[in-house]
């Protein structure tokens, strides 16, 4: 299994290195006026470095090393800015911005990059070509950075989605089993309600997965922790809501069956039909939207936000 993962990462690394080589070679082959020349030795050094990186990738024995080699290859590829024809530098920069927009990079980042890099380019090309090439290299670096982030984002969201989906299915069956056999052992009722609330909480997190265009890398790295916090809050809110419903704070009934009746019945005999649905559905609903507890809080404690007026 370890070897398979390493081999897959090696294939990805080799493909990334070859992509950077092709980008450099394509840039060098672009037509340019006779007076627009570039250092051929500089080009050969970049290709030589890529060959050395590719050789290292073939011998690497750890995935972290392969990730580092991808970064090294991208750094060499970004240097193609220094062999870009002067007449195409501004066009290349605009192309990078357009690509970032297609990736749904936050608009604030797009505007900042355009203002700091693209707008000064035309003047730089006319006055000092090397400054324009350096600016283009910075844009290539930004593009590679966001390409890595978008890939990490998709992988992270897919990973969390799969885990939450699996947890939802497993917890649902556990909840049904606990509620059906609560008459044998009373604590199973509490477990069943807790599992039901966890199901609703997991579904709530799934329904509110963040959009890429409003999330930055720092938030992506912390998203796993946020899932645990939101799930724990939903479970606790569901359990508190069930306790308040059982207490009769909000006397809701379905087909003449209150939540209290359903709980008492499940302790006396196997929960079937509408009783099971009530015991499953109510905690799931509370776990899905813990804001429903606000109405219970007002009924128990009154309007806690009310500020006493001075005499």
């Amino acid at each position: 299994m370890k070897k398979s993962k390493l081999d897959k990462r090696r294939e990805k690394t080799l493909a990334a290195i070859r992509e950077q080589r092709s980008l450099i070679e394509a840039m060098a082959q672009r037509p340019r006026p006779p007076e627009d020349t570039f250092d051929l030795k500089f080009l050969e050094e970049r290709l030589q470095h890529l060959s050395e990186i590719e050789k290292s990738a073939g011998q690497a024995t750890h995935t972290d090393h392969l990730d580092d080699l991808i970064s090294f290859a991208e750094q060499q590829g970004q240097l193609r800015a220094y062999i870009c024809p002067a007449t195409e530098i501004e066009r290349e920069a605009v192309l990078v911005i357009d690509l970032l927009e297609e990736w749904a990079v936050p608009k604030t980042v797009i505007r900042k990059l355009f203002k700091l890099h693209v707008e000064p380019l035309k003047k730089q090309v006319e006055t000092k070509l090397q400054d324009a090439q350096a600016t283009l290299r910075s844009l290539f670096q930004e593009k590679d950075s966001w390409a890595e982030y978008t890939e990490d984002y998709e992988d992270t969201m897919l990973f969390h989605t799969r885990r939450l989906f699996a947890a939802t299915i497993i917890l649902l069956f556990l909840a049904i089993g606990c509620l059906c056999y609560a008459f044998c052992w009373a604590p199973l009722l509490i477990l069943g309600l807790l599992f039901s609330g966890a199901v609703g909480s997991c579904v709530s997190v799934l329904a509110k997965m963040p959009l890429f265009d409003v999330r930055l890398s720092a938030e992506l790295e912390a998203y796993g922790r946020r899932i645990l916090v939101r799930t724990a809050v939903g479970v606790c809110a569901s359990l508190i809501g069930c306790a308040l419903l059982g207490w009769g704070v909000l006397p809701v009934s379905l087909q003449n069956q209150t939540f209290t009746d359903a709980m008492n019945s499940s302790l006396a005999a196997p929960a079937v039909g509408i009783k099971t649905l009530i015991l499953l559905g109510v905690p799931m609903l509370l776990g899905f939207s813990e804001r429903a507890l606000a109405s219970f809080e007002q009924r128990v404690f009154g309007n806690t936000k009310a500020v006493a007026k001075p005499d």
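The beta strands are 253-254, 257-258. Residues 152-301 form one domain.
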